[in-house]
Amino acid sequence: MSSQFSKEKYAIVLDDVKKTFDEKEFVLKGINLKIPRGSLTAIIGFSGTGKSVVLKHMLGLYKPTSGSVTVLGTDLSTLSSDNLTMFRCNYGVLFQSAALFDDMTVLENVCFPLEEHRRNLTKDQVLQIAQEKLRMVDLDPKHFHKLPSQISGGMQKRTGLARALALDPEILLYDEPTTGLDPILTEMVDDLILQTHRARPGTTSIMVSHDLNAAFRIADFIVMLDAGRVLLAGTADDFYKTDIELVRKFVDKGIKH
């Protein structure tokens, strides 16, 4: 893959990324991947194929053993630890569990990143932005002053997403957002991801998921990993039409027609 690419066209580029944790076995074996800017991309694959490891490279939590990770035109390896921390303000992350602070109210959870990274704002401005983000994810104001333990799982996901949106990030990352949820709640979260993406033109959304139905229903770009490599990247139509046997088996078993 050429290292020359359009900053306008791609939000994230992984160029021949390899990763080993023990200097023996490679978890990533040369990932070449371009995430289109403004897309809603789903990264899918069997368990243990490297999906979460790829996500952590995109966040700069892991450094590649070799190869490069370029985000919004910046090679992450060129950033100091402090600059990388600041650069991460370009991301919003919704974790597998909502990962809310238990001892903070819903509103305080959403205020937290603003208080940490937007210290020029007044307290009233922070509250105003946090309330706006909570309304954006359709959370009723009557829940704003409740603790996470006092609201439902669906409301916790909405709060987590509002917190991810707090800094108006250019990139939203979803790490297995529906794991362990019932079908109704799963569909609600999927619809919320799609609704949020459509409401923020230009935002790049990346969802790591085991849920093929969701990936094919809401994503406009899909990446399938296998054994630490990209097996196929393209539209849902590309996946339906492929001759790659492993992809066909995966799709046939995982998609409800």
Summarize the structure in words.
The protein is an alpha/beta fold and 257 residues long. It has 2 domains: 6-72 and 170-257, 3-Layer(aba) Sandwich (Rossmann fold); 100-169, no CATH class. Helix content is 37%, strand content 24%. It has 9 helices and 10 strands. Strands 6-7-8-3-9-10 form a 6-stranded mixed beta sheet, with helices on both faces. The longest helix has 17 residues, at 183-199. The radius of gyration is 19 Å and the shape is globular.
Show the helix and strand layout.
Blueprint: E1 10-20, E2 26-36, E3 40-44, H1 51-58, E4 66-71, E5 74-75, H2 81-87, E6 91-94, H3 106-117, H4 123-136, H5 153-165, E7 171-175, H6 183-199, E8 204-208, H7 212-218, E9 221-226, E10 229-234, H8 236-241, H9 245-254
Parallel strand pairs: 3-8, 3-9, 6-7, 7-8
Antiparallel strand pairs: 1-2, 1-4, 4-5, 9-10
